[in-house]
Design a protein that fits this description.
Layout (H helix, E strand, L loop, with lengths): L6 E7 L5 E6 L14 E4 L24 H14 L11 H11 L8 E3 L5 E3 L11 E12 L2 E9 L4 E2 L4 E3 L4 E8 L8
Antiparallel strand pairs: 1-2, 1-9, 3-6, 4-5, 6-7, 7-10, 8-9
C-alpha cells in the first residue's frame, strides 16, 4: 500500500509548459540512505481498457519486491488509469474508474499535496493520467521488514492531472513514496 510522501514538479495548464517549483509532502519522518542511481522505465500495457485487476503490476503482490520495483509498479498502476496514450480522462466516469482502480492500493493514512495546492487523501485521490514514465536515482530505506521508503526521480512526459487539466513538466521530478505490506490484503 502506498502510504506517504510524494512531491511533484508541475507545469501550468495544458497550453503552457513552464515549470513551477516542487513541493515536498511529509507524512512521516524521512529516513536517509544511499542509493545506486539505477533507472527503470515503464509504459502501460497495450490495452486501452485497463479496468481488470489482472493488469495491476505484479510487484504489489510480491512480499519481497524491492523499493525500485514498487515505485515502478506504482507508476505502472497510474499508467493503467487513463483512457489510452495521448488521451486525457475527462468524464466523471473515466476519473471515477481511475480512482476505483488505485484505491485498493492506498493506505488509509495516504496523503498528498500537489504543487498546485490540491490536497488528497485515500478517499478523494485522483490519480495522474500517465502514458509513459521513467524512474531513476532510486534510494530505498527499509526501517522495518514490511515498510519500504523509496526516494527517486520520475520523468513522466505529458502526464496530466485530470481534475485540474495541469500537465506535468518533462523534467525529472523528485518523489518519495512509502509502501507498507498488508498481510490481510496480501499486497503492498
Amino acid at each position: 500500500m502506498v502510504t506517504g510522501f510524494r512531491s511533484a514538479r508541475y507545469g501550468e495548464p495544458m497550453f503552457r509548459r513552464r515549470h513551477l517549483g516542487f513541493l515536498v509532502l511529509a507524512t512521516s519522518a524521512l529516513l536517509v540512505a544511499c542509493g545506486d542511481g539505477s533507472s527503470t522505465s515503464g509504459a502501460p500495457p497495450t490495452s486501452a481498457e485497463p479496468s481488470s485487476a489482472d493488469q495491476v503490476p505484479v510487484a504489489f503482490a510480491d512480499r519481497d519486491a524491492s523499493g525500485e520495483e514498487l515505485a515502478d509498479a506504482w507508476f505502472g498502476l497510474l499508467a493503467l488509469t487513463g483512457p489510452g496514450p495521448g488521451q486525457v480522462a475527462e468524464s466523471p466516469e473515466e476519473v471515477g474508474s481511475a480512482m476505483a482502480l488505485v484505491k485498493p492500493y492506498l493506505d488509509p493514512a495516504f496523503t498528498l499535496v500537489r504543487a498546485t495546492g490540491q490536497r488528497y487523501n485515500a478517499g478523494n485521490y485522483v490519480p495522474l493520467d500517465v502514458d509513459e514514465f521513467e524512474i531513476s536515482d532510486v534510494v530505498v530505506t527499509e526501517p522495518r521488514d514490511d515498510v519500504r521508503v523509496v526516494r527517486y526521480f520520475v520523468t513522466q512526459p505529458g502526464a496530466t492531472a485530470p481534475d485540474s487539466g495541469v500537465v506535468l513538466g518533462d523534467g525529472k521530478a523528485p518523489r518519495i513514496s512509502v509502501f507498507r505490506w498488508d498481510d490481510q490484503l496480501g499486497h503492498w
